[in-house]
Amino acid sequence: MSGADLPASLGAPPPPRQSPDAGAHDERAGWLARVATTFTAVAEQWVPDAFIFALAATIIVALAALGVVRAAPSTVLHAWGSGFWDLLPFTMQMALVIITGYVVASTRPVYRLIARLASVPRSGRAAVAWVAFFAMASSWLNWGFSLIFSAVLAKETARRVRHVDYRAVAASSFLGLGSVWAQGLSGSAALQMATPSALPPAIRAIVESRDKIPGGIIPLTHTIFLWQSVVSVLVEIALVTLVVYLYAPPPSRARTAEMMGIDLGPCPLDRPGPDNKGTPGEWLEHSPLLTILFVAVAVAYLALEFSRGGKGLAALDLNSINLIFLTVGFALHGTPARLMRAVREATPGVWGVILQFPLYAGIASVIVKTQLNEHIANLFVSISSHTTFAPIIAAYSAMLGVFVPSGGSKWVIEAPYVMRAAHDLHVHLGWTVAVYDLGEAIANLVQPFWMLPILGMFGLRARDIMGYTFLVFLVLAPVVLLMVTLFGMTLPYPL
Asked: What CA–CA distance (Å, rounded) separates 58 from 249?
C-alpha cells in the first residue's frame, strides 16, 4: 500500500498547525524559558563539539593520574594505549542499537503510532513536554528503543507543529537517558546484580559479606522494584515534564528546523517501496520468504534463551536486545529490500559513536589501571555517614559518569568499594544500587556521549541542545540528592 492509499491522518502530515500562543509576547514564557534560552545561546557560542569533550577528558584524566596518583608517565601511556580498543565490541553493539532502533521505528506500523502521537500536541510548548514524557516513559522500558523512538517522535512532531523550537524538542527526546532509564527494566547495574554470571566472583564475595547477601545476588525486587525506586521515577517524570513545558521557547523566540536550514525530509509513510525491476536476481530481495525464515529462527533462539535455566528478564542484554529489534524490524518491514533501505538510512547516525568510543575506552582504562578511581572513592567514603552516604555516592557516580559514560562498565569499577562501604555503614545494599543508578543517569545531561546517536539523526550538534539539558540537570540534581537521602532512611540493612 502506498502513501497515497493511507488515511489522511496517517499519510503525509497536514500543514503545520498554528500554535494558539503564536505571536505571544516573550515574557509570557516566564523566567525559566528565558534562562533556557540564555543557556542555549551560551552553549551555541562556547560549547565545542562532543568530540572535543572526549579529547579534553582524555587530557584531564591523564593529568589527574600523573598529579594525584603519582603514576609514572609510561604507566599512564600504557594504560591509555592498551585500553583504547577495549570497547570495540561495545561500540558495535551501540551502533546496532542505533541502527536496529531506527529500523523498527521506521516501519509502517510503528511510524503510524508515532504519527498519531505527534498529532496530539497543539502548541510548541505542549509538543516539547509531550516528547519529553514519552522519552522518559519509554526509557524505563528500554533505553535503546527509547533513544531512537523518541528521536523519531521529536522529528515527526517538529514536522507537524508550527513554531516548535527544534532544539528544545530534540533535547526532550534525550531526557529519558538523563533521568529514569537506569531505574528501569534495562538498567545495567540492577541487571548485573540480579544476574549471577554478570559480575566477577570477587565482587560477589564483597556483596555477600559472610552470607549477609546469599551468593551476592540482589534481585530486582530490592533495586528497581522497591517502592522508593518507583516513586523516584514518578517524581522525575513529573518534574522534568513540568520543567520542559515551562522552558519551551515561545513562538517569537523559537528556532524551527526550517529556520536552522534543516530538511526534515518526507514522511516515511508517504514513500513508495524500494524499486523492483522484476528480474529473477531481485526476486528474493522483494519476497518475504527469507524474512519469514529468519524471523522463525530468531524467535526460536530467543525463546530458548529466555526459558533456559529460568533466566527470564535476566537474559536481557545488549546482544539480545539488538537481536529482538532486528527480528521485529525484519517482521515489520516484510522484505529484505525494505530492511536494507532502512539500515542504509540509519548508518550515517553512527559515525560519532565510532569516532569517540575508543577515546572513552582509553579514559576508563587510565582511571582503573592507575587506581585513580580508588583515590576519588576514598575521598568520598571518608566523609560519609549512614545518612550522607547515599547523596555522596549519587554525586560521585554522576561526577565519574562525566568521564566514564557507561553505566554497566562503570558499575564494575565502582561496585567493589561502594558495596563494601555500604556494608561498613550499614546501608541497604539494593538502595545503594538504585542510588548509583540515579546519579549515573543525571550525568548524561551534561555529558554529550549518549547524545551522539540521535544528534546525527537530527542534523544538530551537542551545543544546540545542551543549554536545555543543563537546565534540567540544575533542577533535577538537587531533587535526586534529596530523594536518595530521605528514602534511604526508610530502608533496613542489608536488604
From this structure: 35
Q: Which of 182, 218, 216, 183 is nearest to 200 (CA)?
A: 216
Identify whether 19 is part of a domain: no
Q: Which of 298, 368, 363, 362 is nearest to 328 (CA)?
A: 298
Beta bridge partners of 17: 161
Q: Collapse the DSSP code of 150 into the 3-class scheme (helix H, G, I; strand E, B; otherwise coil) and give the result.
A: helix
Among the listed residues 87, 86, 61, the one whose alpha carbon sits nearest the alpha carbon of residue 76: 61
366 contacts: CB under 8 Å, gap ≥ 6: 61, 62, 65, 76, 79, 80, 83, 372
Secondary structure of 3-65 as H, E, C letters: HHHCCCCCCCCCCCECCCCCCCCHHHHHHHHHHHHHHHHHHHHHCCCHHHHHHHHHHHHHHHH
| Contact of 144 with 325, CB cutoff 8 Å | yes
CB 365 within 8 A of CB 80: yes
- Residue 455's pLDDT is 84
Is 4 within the bounds of a domain? no
On whether residue 12 sits in a domain, the answer given is: no
User: What's the Cα-to-Cα distance from 282 to each of 275, 278, 330, 333, 335, rounded to whole Å?
Assistant: 10, 6, 17, 17, 11
Q: What angle do CA 225, 391, 168 make, to 5 degrees?
A: 75
Rounded to whole angstroms, the Cα distance separating 106 from 370 reads 45
pLDDT confidence of residue 111 = 85
Range of the domain at 214: 25-264+282-488
Give the C-alpha separation, 419 to 123, whole Å: 47
Please report where in the chains the cell 514518578 appears, as a residue: 234
CA dihedral of residues 229, 235, 238, 244 (deg, nearest 10): -100
Domains contained in the chain, number: 1
Cβ contacts of 432 within 8 Å, gap of 6 or more: 389, 390, 393, 418, 419, 422
Cell triple for residue 218? 540482589
- Say what the pLDDT of residue 317 is: 65
Which 3 state secondary structure label does DSSP give 278? coil
Q: How many whole angstroms separate alpha carbon 333 and alpha carbon 340?
A: 10
Residue listed under C-alpha cell 554478570 = 198
* 294-318 per-residue burial string, b: 16 or more CB within 10 A, e: under 16: bbeebeeeeeeebeeeeeeebbbbb
Q: How far apart are CA 464 and CA 46, in angstroms?
A: 11
The verdict on residue 59 lying in a domain is yes
Question: Taking a C-beta distance cutoff of 8 angstroms, is the pair 424, 220 a contact?
Answer: no
Task: Name residues of the chain where pLDDT drops below 50.
Answer: 1-27
234-251 as b/e, with b when 16 or more CB fall inside 10 Å? ebbbebbbebbbbbbbbb
Integer Cα distance of 180 and 137 in angstroms: 8
| Nearest residue to 171 via CA among 471, 375, 417 | 471
User: How far is residue 282's CA from residue 275's CA, in Å, rounded to a whole number?
Assistant: 10
